[in-house]
Design goal:
The complex is a heterodimer of chains A (101) and B (476). Chain A is built from five helices and no strands. With 101 residues, chain A is mostly helical. Chain A is flat. The termini of chain A are far apart. Chain B is of the alpha/beta class and 476 residues long. Chain B folds into two domains: 202 residues; 178 residues, Rossmann fold, CATH 3.40.50.1220. In chain B, strand 2, helix 18 and strand 3 form a beta-alpha-beta unit. The chains are: A mainly alpha (101), B alpha/beta (476). At the A-B interface, helix 1, helix 2, helix 3 and helix 4 of A face helix 1, helix 2, helix 4, helix 5 and helix 10 of B. Chain B: It is a multi-pass membrane protein. Chain B: This is NAD(P) transhydrogenase subunit beta. Chain B: The transhydrogenation between NADH and NADP is coupled to respiration and ATP hydrolysis and functions as a proton pump across the membrane.
């Protein structure tokens, strides 16, 4: 399905895309963005599900279970942390309305 | 079915890219994570319908296991992510990143185990991993396994170090040489796996890679942690991309490689901001080699100032620039600082925040803390934007920052910091430094700024000092 040269193209274009996204980010968003990209590679969960799904032996099931466990942690944790960080980014005009200590 | 699944993966990949794109502007950043989150939910749900999983001999057990694992792993991460304090964010990112790397490595382990079983049962006649999986898949799968495993154990060490659970910077004598040898042996085993399909070789390989990740990360100094976390983030992305190729999963390939390249660039930006090469971060900790250069007493004496006087100075200033550092995070002083800022603004003082790219433990760390306290982001300036403005500044208030304002980075070529871009706080009319004690900074390098004629030291805990300043300014 994704083989040979087609894969090389995908690798290359995805590489450029990542580079482009980062190159225009203001410093204030570096930590949230690192956290956001950390969340995005949580897609490993999908692969982990397949790995556990095709497991035949108990050993494979154990390793696959660990894979899904870790993958889910990456995806969910990455999301929660990123969302919490970004929640705080509010422009000053909105700030004056919402009262905080 | 296959078409629906592939289409959903495509949509998910697009949502990830658009989401990350939106995260690169403060205005749309929140929408960005929601989009990426939607992509993740979609991809996860359609995977349950994947024919590979449904055609498996043990479909019932496996699906049950998948659900249980997601509930446990996701539930734990949800709970820990919600309750962690904002100051502890960096280590949580390190931990979740490590989990991703571990997951990628575990996927590779399952694939290699399957290949090994197949070889021993002589199903296809092929007896090597390369023969069974194909050259490309075997190479990328094993590469992903090394990278993912190192990222896993390395991130766990980074987490432990940032969380204060591990302070050792050395495990063995000649650590770097040991690391190099270990790396060579690990690669040797990786090659061995490619040409054989021996289960014991695979197990030893994973153990070696785990140890390598630990050994690489332990010597890295605390100040370099942001670079390491960012690097491991990029590595996990790569590993995920490679394992995506092994599984023929387009969403994993695209998302993984996007993160891999974005993370690599971010790592370089960070290392550059600290005037260190990425290689340097691994092979020479700043903190370890400066003891000899640092402590001479020729710098002069620090001049102390009381909070009252500092308050008066700031109240009648035309412009105050606040430079926060990790000390502010430790003291949790950001709320007090914002309160102080508001009072000063009411008095007609222009207040700006100046953030060095590597202030704190991660780039943007200070921004997150200030945002938490409610400081609007348009009061916060980057180094390039604020440096020219210091000569129009009455008071530069440094709280818990040290190396990022150290003028030796500019004028002392023998300093380990030499060449690092800094905030030019010394150009301000007055410099007030809130600092806990007289010791040197995180890198262990003395800071001549603290001894300069226009610098006054306000010793004390960041939060307490800020409260005193608020008191002093209010009384006027």
């Amino acid at each position: 399905m994704i083989e040979g040269l087609a894969a090389v193209y995908i690798f290359m274009l995805a590489g450029f895309t990542g580079y482009e996204i980062i190159s225009k980010v203001p410093v204030i968003l570096h930590t949230p963005l690192m956290s956001g990209s950390n969340f995005v590679h949580g897609i490993v969960l999908v692969g982990a599900m397949v790995a556990l799904g095709i497991a035949d032996t108990t050993a494979e099931q154990i390793i696959g279970f660990i894979a899904v466990l870790l993958g889910a942690g990456n995806a969910v944790g990455g999301y929660v942390v990123t969302e919490r960080m970004l929640e705080m980014f509010k422009p000053s005009d909105k700030k004056s309305k919402s009262e905080e200590s | 079915m296959e078409t629906i699944i592939q289409a959903s993966y495509l949509i998910a990949a697009a949502l990830f890219i658009l989401g990350l794109k939106q995260m690169s502007s403060p205005v749309t950043a929140r929408r960005g994570i929601l989009w990426a989150g939607a992509g993740m939910v979609l991809a996860t749900l359609v995977t349950f319908m994947s024919p590979e999983i449904l055609d498996s001999d043990q479909v019932g057990t496996n699906i049950l296991l998948i659900v249980v694992a997601i509930v446990i792993g996701g539930g734990y991460a949800w709970y820990s992510g919600k309750k962690v304090a904002m100051t502890d964010m960096p280590q949580m990112i390190a931990m979740y990143n490590g989990m991703g790397g571990g997951a990628a490595a575990a996927i590779a382990a399952v694939e290699l185990m399957k290949a090994s079983t197949e070889a021993s049962h002589d199903v296809t006649g092929a007896t090597t991993v390369a023969g069974i999986l194909g050259t490309d898949i075997a190479i990328l799968g094993i590469l992903g396994a090394i990278i993912g495993t190192i990222s896993f154990s390395g991130s766990i060490i980074a987490w432990a170090k940032l969380d204060g659970r591990l302070s050792r910077s050395k495990l063995l004598p000649k650590q770097h040489i040991v690391n190099a040898l270990l790396a060579i042996v690990t690669v040797g085993f990786a090659v061995a796996i490619y040409f054989t399909a021996d289960i014991n070789t695979i197990i030893i390989f994973f153990v070696l890679a785990l140890i390598l990740g630990v050994f690489i990360t332990v010597p890295v100094g605390g100040a370099d942690m942001p670079v390491i976390i960012s690097l491991f983030n990029a590595l996990t992305g790569l590993a995920v991309g490679f394992e995506g190729y092994v599984l023929g999963n387009a969403a994993m390939i695209v998302a993984g490689i996007v993160v891999g390249s974005a993370g690599s660039l971010l790592t370089q930006l960070m290392a550059k901001a600290m005037n260190r090469s990425v290689a340097n971060v691994f092979f020479a900790g700043v903190g370890t080699n400066v003891a000899a250069t640092g402590s001479d007493d020729s710098l002069g004496v620090m001049k102390e100032i009381q909070a009252q006087d500092a308050g008066i100075l700031m109240s009648f200033a035309s412009q105050v620039v606040i430079i926060p550092g990790y000390g502010m995070a430790v003291a949790q002083a950001q709320h007090k600082i914002w309160e102080l800022t508001q009072i000063l603004t009411e008095k007609g003082v222009t207040v700006k925040f100046a953030i060095h790219p590597v202030a704190g433990r991660m780039p943007g760390h200070m921004n997150v803390l200030l945002a938490e306290a409610g400081v609007p982001y348009d009061m916060i300036y980057d180094m390039e934007d604020i440096n020219a403005d210091f000569k129009n500044t009455t008071v530069a208030l440094i709280i818990g920052a040290n190396d990022v304002v150290n003028p030796s980075a500019k004028n002392d070529s023998s300093s380990p910091l030499y060449g690092m871009p800094i905030l030019d706080a010394m150009n301000a009319e007055n410099v007030i430094v809130i600092k806990r004690g007289r010791g040197a900074g995180f890198s262990g390098v003395e800071n001549p700024l603290f001894f300069a004629d226009n610098t006054k030291m306000l010793f004390g805990d960041g939060q307490k000092a800020a409260s005193q300043l608020i008191q002093a300014v209010k009384e006027l």
